[in-house]
Amino acid sequence: MDTLRSHLPKVRIPEPSSRIYKQECCVSFSTPRSEGGLFVDMYSFLAFGREYVMWNYEKTRNPVYLNIQETPKQVSEDRPHKKPTLLAIGVEGGFDSKEPEYEVSYSIVILPEFISLSYPSVELPEKVRLAVDAVLAAVGAERKEEVAAWTADKKQVSPFALSLQQLENGVKVPPSGWKCSQCDKTENLWMNLTDGTILCGRRNWDGTGGNNHALEHYQATNYPLAVKLGTITADLEGADVYSYAEDDTVEDPLLADHLAHFGIDFSSLRKTEMTTAERELDQNTNFDWNRIQEKGKELEPLFGPGFTGLANLGNSCYLASVMQAVFATKDFQRYYYENVKLDDAFKQAPADPTLDLHMQLSKLAHGILSGKYAVPSNKGLENEAPEEPKGKNALTSMLQGQDGIPPRMFKSLIGTGHPEFASSRQQDALEFFQHFLDQVEQNHAAAAGEDPSRCFKFVVEERIMCSVTKKVKYTRKTDNILSLNIPLKAAVNKDEVAAYEKRVAEREIAGEKSDEEIVRPRVPLAACLESFYASEEVQDFYSSAINARTTAIKTTRLATFPDYLVLHMRKFVLAAGWVPKKLDVFVDVPDEIDISNMRSNGMQPDEQLLPETPEEIPEQAGPVADEAIVSQLLDIGFSKVRCEKAAIQTLNTGVEEAMNWLLAHMDDPDIDEPITASGNRETSSAVLVNESDVETLVAFGFLPEMARKALRATGGNIETAAEWILNHPEESSAMELDVGTGTNEPEPEVKYPDGPGKYQLLAFVSHMGTSTQSGHYVAHIRKDGRWVIFNDCKVALSGDPPKDMGYLYFFQRVQS
């Protein structure tokens, strides 16, 4: 006790704002359930496993620790020990689904001698008792971060629910036997909470679902809220309430009263339908999810070095799949695992290692690659008889996987300051991959040559040739992914697809349901690559050689070939009505590719450069209003200048669009000013671009600069901005190529890895679902000549890797 008293200056009582770690080691994945438990530094409140706590003592000389140990409670010998007879969990005769119960014990440990003192104890100094009590009572930093991320996704209370006026129309809704009042649909039914009308939901893009009657009812009545029948149970929080006015799933705190108005006793109802969120995850899953996850196949679980799964923290599969693929590369393996020891990384880390990217990446790399945590889990197998056979054909091997490691500290750190990655919402794996590489690059700003993310970088060279003078301009930019369009016209099975679509249409007209397996277009990867480097004509290009606008020919090639080439398949497009749609397509990806023909040749001896572009380029002639639209608006009674402006501002898309624009801009101070040469489109200086709108357009594959330009050109209207981009494909090139001098001034020399253009497929990340912001991601990685599936914490030998369904493909250079 005297030793403890002598160290009281090294004991702190935590403040309410203190970050207290007590669930996981800062430098490993040890927990209170690990051997020796967890040691909480009573000065810094950082936690360390038994193997690592001495590192902290040697670095900080902090000697006092709270040791937390959780040990499984002993199961009574009187408990019957049954061998499972059913391949099921949590049912009689099946595997036990209950988590084991743990006993928690605490002690005060003094280093370096590891002197242990019992806790609680009245003999402990008061400062120590108060400090430990505060630590145990506090919400752990790990938990705080999880809660902060999760609360961002909570459904919002709808203001319409609080002031909803329900009609006294005598409608009483029975507890079952519902049917759409406009058609024969008996599933996906919604009851409008204003008038009690039961109608079917929206029609999905593939023709399934409802007939849009609930939506059409809202459009006709403006009754804003509807509840999905079949999701109402005694737990009203699980009921699916949709606000058409807010276009989102919402919370109705008065739902019990609103249901009672139509005679519905929610306490007696059972769930028979999926919620909107569940259905969103289920869209296209009967085939895609099962195939991508290789469901229904006996997959052999894998354990040991390189086969560690990552536990899902709640919509974190995008992170898990990308990081598994990243740590399959030699560069990241060498930098964060082979060439760095955890204690060295800890010594180099700042006072709080949870905030150091190098430390947390080293921790993650050692966790994934060492094999220390890739061991079979015993969860749910407490009832298993000792003689139960092991092996890939045994019941246990089919259920017994691994717990995986939770990348919570890494996720918290990499998402710091980012509005999306700091949340628990699902994210786009591509956006996360690029954000991750940006963070790694910034972390190596002082030593760029050591940056492992350089293995993905390459230089893109664009050549543009004036069609009049044949003079050229070269521009270069760096990138880390090759984003490819999928040309459906290049599908090798167009006849089969057309025949299938015809059969589906005929059955739909006849009111028959089709059980036929979907026939998807099948496009070769070679066609996607060809669409990238094919020459394209650029309209309205300003040629400094003739001081006028003309056409030009643009070609794109790669000036360098990276060690690892990442291909991104642009599967998400805007469908009719500006609804995001995922292309239902297969891309045939071979195990090996050769992109040598995509190598740029640079400037040739017989080529002449375009002169320097002047600072001010002559203004382009302004857009012209469609006379038919103007005429119809004039008939309604608007002035001519207003009619012309409305047509121009809506890109001459139609009378209804122009009318809506006019009604929204009637009070604009310049509404009656004459039209200028630019067509009075809002200038970039006058329009503030909403960055969330930019991100939305980028998600559809548009360049950020192009998205901003389109939003400025259309006054910030995201729908007309998207149409503007689609109607001005030449602007993407002209925007980049009108900038620069076109001279041979040397650029700062930045060398990136380069080599032959032959690559072998190393890994691919697949996406299941209708949107990159929903669904599920899975990684497949080639290891020692075998394909392995990484599905969060599940790691197994892949029986049939779905290489034609990938979203991101990681290719490794084949050394000649």
UniProtKB/TrEMBL annotation:
Record domain UBP-type: where: 156-266
PROSITE patterns in alphabetical order: UBA (PS50030), USP_1 (PS00972), USP_2 (PS00973), USP_3 (PS50235), ZF_UBP (PS50271)
Active site: C317, H776
Residue ranges occupied by any UBA domain in the UniProt entry: 624-665, 688-728
Class in the EC hierarchy, top level: hydrolase
Gene Ontology molecular functions: cysteine-type deubiquitinase activity; zinc ion binding
GO biological process: protein deubiquitination; proteolysis
Entry EC no(s): 3.4.19.12
PANTHER family (alphabetical): UBIQUITIN CARBOXYL-TERMINAL HYDROLASE, UBIQUITIN CARBOXYL-TERMINAL HYDROLASE 14
Function as written in the Swiss-Prot or TrEMBL entry: Recognizes and hydrolyzes the peptide bond at the C-terminal Gly of ubiquitin. Involved in the processing of poly-ubiquitin precursors as well as that of ubiquitinated proteins.
Record protein name field: Ubiquitin carboxyl-terminal hydrolase
Organism expressing this protein natively: Ceratodon purpureus
